[in-house]
Design brief:
With 242 residues, this protein is mainly α. The protein has 2 domains: 92 residues, no CATH class; 144 residues, Orthogonal Bundle (Helix Hairpins), CATH 1.10.287.1700. It has 5 helices and 4 strands, in the order ααααββαββ. The longest helix is centred in the middle third of the chain and has 84 residues. The chain is rod-shaped. It binds zinc ion. The site of zinc ion has 9 residues, from loops.
Length: 242
């Protein structure tokens, strides 16, 4: 194969620039700050939904406890009233029995009072949970609004990158089409082997692809050799400027 012309080598380096630009854009697209903010906002919504569900469960439990206590109080009140009625309707005349009925009434009243204290605590708990639920509802609405806003921002930002990517792809096709197919193949192979950049340029005694400084002896040899060679450090293609 004849030595590539300067035009072909310039084109090869331009193709490398375009490919590097495409890789940067692809990275940007996958790594958009808007995307990361959106991910964080979605995590926040999921956390709030979880908290909201928990509070909802606690409220259900507290409401069930409230109904249970109210029913028990009702039953106790009926029992107390029945005992009181017995006390006054004249059916109990025996002194010992009267004292026993009175004792039963105070015992039931004590239990009513205990139940009412517990009920008060449960009602306070319900009130607190309802406040928390309302706060969580508001926070969820705000977080969902934020997700919607960030979604449009992400779409908008990605749109710019996608347009640039499309433009770069057209440029790449043009450059690759003008490049000697054999040279294009050597570049493709070198890029694949290196996992990215396939060609560098000798700049200030350094290969621009691997950035490793070369010895004066290496540089002297490279300058005396062909315009396209291989970097002694990274084995990528290396363009030697005239
Ligand atoms: Zn190198």
């Amino acid at each position: 194969m004849a030595e590539p012309t300067t035009e072909q080598l310039d084109l090869l380096l331009a193709l490398q620039d375009t490919d590097s630009r495409i890789r940067r854009l692809e990275h940007q697209r996958d790594d958009l700050p808007e995307q990361q903010q959106l991910d964080a906002a979605e995590v926040r919504v999921a956390e709030l939904v979880g908290e909201h569900d928990e509070v909802h469960l606690e409220l259900d439990r507290a409401a069930a406890q409230q109904r249970q206590l109210e029913r028990e109080i009702e039953v106790l009140v009926e029992r107390r009233d029945a005992e009181r009625a017995r006390l006054y309707d004249g059916t109990v005349t025996n002194e010992r029995e009267l004292r026993s009925v009175e004792a039963e009434i105070s015992s039931v009243e004590r239990r009513i009072s205990e139940h009412e204290d517990t009920l008060l605590e449960v009602l306070e708990q319900v009130e607190g949970l309802e406040t928390r639920q309302a706060d969580l509802d508001a926070a969820l609405t705000a977080a969902r609004d934020q997700v919607a806003e960030l979604t449009s921002a992400r779409d908008e930002a990605a749109k710019g990158i996608l347009a640039e990517l499309a433009e770069a792809a057209v440029e790449r096709d043009r450059q690759a089409g003008e490049l000697d197919p054999e040279l294009l193949e050597r570049y493709r192979t070198a890029a694949q082997r290196a996992g990215g950049v396939g060609v560098g340029r000798l700049e200030n005694n350094t290969c621009s692809a691997c950035r490793i400084g070369l010895s004066m002896a290496d540089v002297g040899e490279l300058l005396a050799g062909p315009p396209l060679t291989t970097c002694p450090e990274c084995r990528r293609l290396l363009v030697i400027p005239e």
